[in-house]
Amino acid sequence: MSVKVSAVQGESPLGPIAVLATAEGVCWVDFDNLAAAKAAFARYAARWMGQPVWTEAPHPAAVATLTQLREYFDGKRQAFDVPLVLHGTAFQKRVWHELMRIPYGHVVSYQEIARRLGHPRAVRAVGQAVGRNPLAILVPCHRVVGADGSLVGYASGLERKRWLLVREGAWPLDVSARA
After folding, report:
1. Its family (predicted)?
2. What is the pLDDT of residues 1-49, one digit of tens each?
3. In what helix (H) or strand (E) does residue 126 lie, and over which residues does it extend?
4. Strands in 13-113 per DSSP E
5. pLDDT tens digit string along 103-116?
């Protein structure tokens, strides 16, 4: 089984950002150069989608995502309206959908996400699902913090997480801003 994938790269204030899309929509966003993003995606796709076949023509959703990410980085966009493709376990998908409910400028703890999902003791499982999010920024895993409000666990690095939260006005942490 194989899947056709389009890949585009843009620049952000935090370094290169890669956006990958299938015919269904955007399936991967990562702070990385295109070669590294393609390699990481190939491992992910092998489990969930099949072997990627790279296409030359950029998918319109990938191009639109880069445009919307530029607007986000410029402080002109708070939400994204591109088709998203999420492949993972049922639990991972539940976590990722819960992340998409965290408003711009707010943070939520891993513990709170577990509670909202009806599994208050599944904090570690929530953390693992957050860490496997294939759509950086679009599925805002950067808005998840430790129970004490500390910055923890961002696959793209804590400095990027801090920068994103500062951009959104959610850092330094204002306890009243928690969603």
Report:
1. Belongs to the MGMT family.
2. 899 999 999 999 999 999 999 999 999 999 999 999 999 999 999 999 9
3. helix 123-131
4. 15-22, 25-30, 51-55, 108-109
5. 999 999 999 999 99
Q: Which residues are catalytic?
A: 141
Instruction: Give the angle subtended at the CA of 8 by the CAs of 65 and 2, to the nearest 5°.
Output: 100
**What's the rounded Cα separation, in Å, for the pair 58 and 22?**
10
Query: What span, in angstroms and rounded, lies between the C-alpha atoms of 20 and 33?
Result: 12
**Alpha-carbon separation of residue 109 from 66, 69, 129, 147, 173 (angstroms):** 28, 24, 14, 5, 12
Which H or E run contains 45? Answer: helix 34-48
Q: Are 129 and 91 in contact (CB under 8 A)?
A: yes
Cβ(106)–Cβ(144) under 8 Å?
A: no
CB of 131 closer than 8 Å to CB of 158: no
Measure Cα distances from 171 to 85, 116, 149, 159, 163 in Å.
29, 23, 10, 12, 9
Supply 64's token pair: 């639109």
Distance separating alpha carbons of residues 164 and 171, to the nearest angstrom: 9
Q: Is the pTM of this model over 0.90?
A: yes
Residue with tokens 């998840």: 144
